[in-house]
């Protein structure tokens, strides 16, 4: 029987509750956003006692469904001031699901000046004072927890930036290889730090299997679903071979690779940082081009990237990170970029917010353009140690822009715009503008249809059709984010008609309910509207759904395009 | 014939325009807010090329009317993101008025990486590259300009924080004694810095008198008006004797003196920093308890405060500054507070934002509570030099709170709450919440009626009548801010029936128009609504009209009161 666990940090008590009927078939983002909207006062301070952290595995997490091992985390974001769902790979979603934990809701604020550690077992949750690992970064915390509890333990932790409540701080999640995945965006690590929880350990010994009501139906769906993933060229070939970093050359070719803090759409040294180059480096150093972020992943877009001596340097090395330090900051050395990636994992900073911020740091003149060693030093010694400059940087691109009085700061709702220039890929610009999450490419990845010609083609340079495209993608993504599925299943989902029926068949079989692609999409609509309503109640107006002003008056080469949507055109997004 | 001067910093051109008919009888805040609302795109970046600076002397500035020498400055505030009117004493309002400059509107952004200096004479405005004083603080700039142009020159300048576009940076205005008054609040210095104007000099040689259409009527009004100011106990006796700092003991007695960053309503060492103590120190060191911020001031609430050796230390030494470093930061040494005040004048930081920020700096643990020497060092060496920590502090209390992830940060619309705790003086809380300017006691000084029993009495601890009180005061203040009058004329205005008719008689006589107290107040209503509408268009929602959450759950001793207005009660403010 699934349960809800509530941990109250004010009185240090744990309560286990039965799952309310209306939450039984929910999971992932649908569940976290439902709880956030129902329980968090929209105008509360995100770092105050009235905010909560809501962890929920996806509907299919813990089942044999391929790529279903992602955990959703909901809260009011200290970065955006709005609702947040941030999902991560790692081991905890599958552990929670098998342990029957439908959601873990962390509430309140400790009254004493102490740090705590939550330990979750089949017996329940204990809240223990934590002293050993306070002030440590994530890799050391994981190592200490494995030493304390054995290497099968699941770990979710924060580094120093999270302890210091920096708004780019993420929550790090141990993956199957003892490395790190992240609830990256929106400053979830700062909320955990405000609640003075250094880490959460998950011991799933004694947990059974996730119950599936209609096993045959499930297996049939799961097979069709897995086959589609493997059949599609992006998930079956492109991502496993080059990782997401295949996109450097694709976006450069499209003129939408934001370069030198969104001044240009192409980077003359794109070859230095491309997926193809990265693949060759990985292979030549005996790394692994393929790697999964959770058990059961059949896409394997991750990798193990070794240094020149063949020692492990980083993994989960994404296009957005490489773009951000590469084209955006003009750092053309892949190893320096990989070192920054590893540091961001270790100290616990969102690697998108972190890299976009670094470009704004260069814009401010704190270090020169292209200074990879400077970036490494700033991350490790300033952000990682929490100096004054570290606090400016660790609070994200908007923070640096505000601190230094800059106007060229690519954020929406104070969250950094990643890797795809909205002037040249207009569909993703609509997603940046309208997503309740703040600028987030994963919220409605219009790049697929604008550039990759997945799900058809909508001209990236034209306004026509972009609002509808982004709307459909955001609705579908909201639904998919509720399943525990990796968002990349959307690629086959857009092109192969069997994917969504297979997915909803698995959900129906899991819970013994009737669900079809139509009702699944309806759920996505409802949740997206609920998130938007939370933001409005938190004080956002339509003006929050806008890109920074400079995109409107500063044309982007080579297409020399500006962001030219009217406010009314953008606001039409919400007409559904 | 009055004129509008437009300075375009993009193409470095100056245009002189005739005054549009609908602006002829406007002045001060009514004119600046009208221009801001008409010409600045509400969603523009405040530090970008589409923001403007609008200087306008009051309707009566330059005339013989007592206390009419204040200049209004309008813009979109980089601190609040909303409309701003910030008015200052000094010499420039009267100079502008006599030179026939109805408004100076500065637009655009220079394209080159250079600093500029505007020089205003009867012949017009010249835009010159400035090299000598770049990187200097305000006292040195004033001295340099007096050397360059003679000691009668009017000066408006920014220090290093303004050059570096810090959002607490003010614009400093030379006063008749070569000291400094300020367009303090809202970060106007950052806007001037963004436009790369280091200083504006005003040479009014050759200017005549301000024309008055009905001289006899004017004189009669002016006499009645001046008599009322001198007759009222606050403006005739309290302020000239003790300055605004008379309020330390008054607010302490009322339990509304925010202490240790708004933890308590009383300060046990209030005697060390009181107006009475200050008066004795000034007299014992051969300073001057009375002093005016502009020619024609008959209240003389300012003073000359000397150091222990009898040398000039500071002037314009206000209650809010002394409260902020005293009770709020627990610095109980008047000389250390005076030194901070002088530094804030010199480097050009709003002395309200600066002191509230210092308490948040202590809250963050950057320096200990009560560390006056530390505060001096931070202001001079960090903010004044623009270090990373200086940028955090120089961007105000909200910036420090965001940087260090704090919840006890007393700001509304990101502007600091001054010197009167809204839980114990509820009328001023409504002003803080609703003023389009952000938290600003001068926008509707309900302390007068809540605590000083001026204009009747409304119980400060009860919600009853506070919204109406604040509304009436904000409307009247908006009107008074348009006249060039010092806001302290409101004290006699609240108690003596002859004041407002005398004021409107002077305005009517000045322009040859019919205006009475009723139509004057109607104008105040219109302008206040216009400002509110600008903010809504800029993206503010009702949720912007709220106090920080901690006031709602943290009771203030000794009365143990919380902020208990419902959102609906606050929003009723705008029903007029």
UniProtKB/TrEMBL annotation, chains A, B:
GO terms for molecular function: 4 iron, 4 sulfur cluster binding; electron transfer activity; metal ion binding; oxidoreductase activity, acting on the aldehyde or oxo group of donors, iron-sulfur protein as acceptor. Transmembrane segments: none annotated. It holds the Pfam family AFOR_N. Its cofactor is tungstopterin; [4Fe-4S] cluster. The keyword tRNA processing does not apply. Residues 66-91 are annotated as: Disordered. Keywords: 4Fe-4S, Iron, Iron-sulfur, Metal-binding, Oxidoreductase. Residues 1-206 form the Aldehyde ferredoxin oxidoreductase N-terminal domain. Gene3D superfamilies: Aldehyde Ferredoxin Oxidoreductase Protein, subunit A, domain 2, Aldehyde Ferredoxin Oxidoreductase Protein, subunit A, domain 3, Aldehyde ferredoxin oxidoreductase, N-terminal domain. Residues 66-78 have a biased composition (Polar residues). InterPro entries: Ald_Fedxn_OxRdtase_dom2, Ald_Fedxn_OxRdtase_dom3, Ald_Fedxn_OxRdtase_N, Ald_Fedxn_OxRdtase_N_sf, OxRdtase_Ald_Fedxn_C, Tungsten_al_ferr_oxy-like_C, W-dependent_AOR. Belongs to the AOR/FOR family. This is Aldehyde:ferredoxin oxidoreductase, tungsten-containing.
């Amino acid at each position: 029987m699934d349960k809800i666990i509530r941990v109250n940090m004010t009185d240090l008590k744990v309560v286990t509750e039965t799952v309310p009927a209306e939450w039984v078939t929910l999971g992932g983002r649908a569940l976290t956003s439902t709880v956030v909207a129902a329980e968090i006062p929209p105008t509360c301070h995100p770092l105050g006692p009235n905010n909560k952290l809501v962890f929920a595995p996806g509907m299919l997490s813990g089942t044999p469904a391929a790529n279903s091992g992602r955990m959703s985390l909901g809260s009011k974001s200290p970065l955006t001031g709005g609702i947040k769902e941030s999902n991560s790979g790692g081991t905890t979603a599958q552990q929670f699901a098998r342990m029957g934990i439908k959601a873990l809701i962390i509430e309140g604020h400790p009254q004493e000046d102490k740090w705590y550690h939550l330990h979750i077992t089949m017996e329940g949750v204990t809240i223990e004072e934590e002293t050993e690992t306070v002030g440590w970064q994530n890799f050391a915390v994981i190592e200490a927890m494995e030493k304390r509890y054995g290497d099968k333990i699941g770990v979710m932790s924060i580094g120093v930036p999270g302890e210091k409540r920096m708004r780019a701080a993420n929550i790090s999640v141990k993956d199957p290889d003892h490395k790190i995945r992240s609830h990256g965006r929106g400053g979830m690590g700062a909320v955990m730090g405000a609640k003075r929880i250094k880490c959460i350990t998950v011991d799933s010994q004694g947990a059974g299997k996730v119950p599936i009501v209609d096993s045959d139906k499930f297996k049939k769906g799961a097979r069709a679903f897995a086959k589609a993933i493997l059949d599609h060229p992006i998930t079956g070939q492109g991502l496993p071979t080059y990782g997401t970093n295949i996109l450097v050359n694709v976006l450069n070719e499209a003129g939408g690779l934001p370069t030198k803090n969104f001044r240009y759409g192409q980077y003359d040294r794109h070859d230095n940082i491309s997926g193809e180059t990265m693949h060759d480096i990985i292979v030549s150093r005996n790394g692994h081009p393929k790697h999964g972020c959770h058990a059961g992943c059949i896409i394997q877009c991750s990798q193990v990237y070794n240094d020149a001596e063949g020692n492990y340097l980083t993994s989960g090395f994404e296009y957005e990170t490489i773009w951000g330090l590469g084209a955006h900051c003009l750092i053309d050395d892949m190893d320096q970029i990989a070192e920054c990636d590893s540091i961001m994992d270790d100290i616990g900073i969102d690697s998108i917010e972190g890299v976009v911020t670094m470009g704004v740091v260069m814009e401010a003149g704190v270090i020169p353009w292209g200074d990879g060693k400077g970036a490494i030093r700033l991350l490790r010694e300033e952000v990682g140690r929490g100096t004054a400059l570290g606090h400016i940087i660790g609070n994200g691109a908007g923070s640096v822009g505000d601190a230094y009085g800059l106007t060229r700061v690519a954020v929406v709702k104070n969250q950094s715009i990643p890797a795809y220039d909205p002037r040249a890929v207009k569909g993703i610009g609509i997603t940046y503008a309208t997503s309740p999450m703040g600028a987030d490419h994963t919220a409605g990845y219009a790049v697929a249809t604008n550039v990759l010609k997945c799900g058809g083609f909508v001209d990236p340079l034209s306004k026509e059709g972009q609002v509808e495209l982004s709307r459909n993608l955001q609705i579908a993504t909201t639904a998919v984010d509720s399943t525990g599925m990796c968002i990349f299943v959307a690629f086959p989902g857009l092109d192969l008609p069997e994917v969504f029926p297979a997915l909803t068949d698995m959900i129906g079989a899991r819970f013994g309910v009737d669900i079809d692609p139509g009702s699944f999409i309806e759920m996505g609509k409802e949740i997206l509207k609920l998130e938007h309503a939370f933001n409005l109640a938190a004080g956002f107006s339509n003006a929050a759904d806008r890109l920074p002003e400079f995109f409107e008056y500063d044309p982007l080469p080579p297409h020399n395009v500006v962001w030219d949507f009217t406010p009314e055109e953008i606001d039409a997004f919400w007409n559904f």
